[in-house]
Fold each of these.
Amino acid sequence: MQIDVFTLFPELFPAYLEASILGRAQQAGLLGVGVHNIRSYATDKHQVTDDTPFGGGGGMVMKPEPIFAAVESVLGAPPAVPVILLSPQGRVFTQAVAQELAQHSRLALICGRYEGVDERVRQHLATDEISIGDFVLTGGELPALLLIDAVARNLAGVLGQADGALTDSHATGLLEGPHYTRPAEFRGWGVPPELLSGDHARIARWRRQQALRRTAQRRPDLLERADLSAEDRKLLEGNDE
Ligand code: 21W
């Protein structure tokens, strides 16, 4: 998958994209990310990318011309790929949206700054508008990185077998239960005996029960939407262990 990012702050991207799983995905040719500076596409002497809002009110708005020029120069006019505007007014990003976007071979992401972008970018260039949640950030760059991260780990080959995207919490619709590693005793705190039992069926049952209980406790909204088996309902009621 190829993702092209359009931003006034391209220097924010490399450190995160080069590390760990995303770095390896790019080296393996599974993911390509092009980061493009919108400012380079401004045609005036001072490469101005923002201006005061019509109607007054203060703050600055990103001008349409450099954004259209940047996106159309990289992707053609009109672009034949989804063009996603990251904005607080977008539909809220979820695991389901990440999985949906991972089906495309190419995406364009536009990061806003200041008070936002000229409405004509939204109306005539963007094909989708996404928010990452109900809180206020300073721009769309962190949301773009977050989206790339969540989408990339759904691409075939990006994750190892062990932590496959299909078994993820939120892909299964439940929160995960607790994880432990060595030592078996730390500062007098032990590890649940089920995990040390070597009985794989018992371990699987205990893990499922912990996931169900934690979800019931912390995210009853998720549990309501999960389709639980009869066995799950028994585990949740505590009739098992
Ligand atoms: C924040 C842009 C607020 C516009 C009145 C006076 C992209 C984001 C962003 C930003 C405003 C996302 C105002 C969750 C986010 C983003 C920057 C509104 C401010 N109104 N997801 N001043 N949260 N944020 N204008 O902030 O670009 S996705």
Amino acid sequence: MSIIDPRGRLIDYARISLTDRCNYRCVYCMPEEGVARLSHGGIMRYEEIIWLARVLVSLGVRHIRFTGGEPLVRKGMPEFLLSFRKEFPDIRLSLTTNASLLGEAAPVIARARLSGINVSLDTVDPVKFSAVTRTGDIRDVFGGIEAAASSGISPIKTNTVLMRGFNDAELPEILNFAWSLGLIPRIIEFMPLNESLWARDSFIGSDEIKSILNSLGDWKPEKTDSQYPRGPAKYFADRATGRRVGIIEAVSNHFCESCNRLRITASGKFRACLFNNREIPLLGMVRARDRDALTRAITEGIGLKPAKWTQASDGDGNMSGIGG
Ligand code: SAM
Ligand code: SF4
């Protein structure tokens, strides 16, 4: 079985948010005071996520990524990943995390045979790191990355949201840090999801990102991400060293045409597109274990997937709530 949307796109990738909560308050993602928290009863329980995933997998989903908020702040998350893997031995399973809690969790998580993790890393400077995350200590992240690497989790990719005047000049250092540890750095264009968090002056488009990169190497575009051919990142390899870097042109050059993803928020809302705020609540169907209603809702939801994201105003909300 496979899910093909009305525009012919194969939808086989689900990003599931495990929580809207986070121990950080990154300036571009969350307001300083945090977001109104969902009640415990309002978020999907682990067994509900597994049941929902069974339906998704039966419909053709082959890759599930857990995200958030910060997935590791949710109690029992590493053990949940192990149960999840036991239930779904063959799918691609991955995680997006700020890595701050990975130090302890990595050895357990590694047993879930992840296909890789993505770690947010906007700076390698301890003072700037505390400023951009508002609450973070970079030593936790370094420890988390080290624990993940020594537990054998691979590949580890870093996500750097590039912001003018904040980390653009630091980019060589950030890339060198990643390469020195065998990680794959990726640079993300700042996305206009919430006007109040969106400082337009900070935006750096992919043309400018490429020209910064050109001063750092002789880049050959890779045809696809060999790890995952339809991911949003465009990868480049340095002709001299073979070192790789990815660019996620989330704003200036959309990957909508090849988008293969659906999203489920922590409260069980289906979202067909990051930039389209129409959501379908699935929690009641999941709680009632109503497979037919759920299948119908997901199929209808996929039909809402826009052909292309066109304007910033489509966005509403923070990445932490949607599941970035
Ligand atoms: N807490 C985890 C983390 O930080 O990796 C997972 C959730 S976070 C919302 C997922 C990714 O979204 C992070 O790499 C973060 O940098 C990115 N992100 C959040 N808000 C963004 C924005 N406005 N523009 C671009 N990327 C954003
Ligand atoms: Fe938390 Fe990740 Fe958002 Fe930062 S980007 S506030 S770590 S959810």
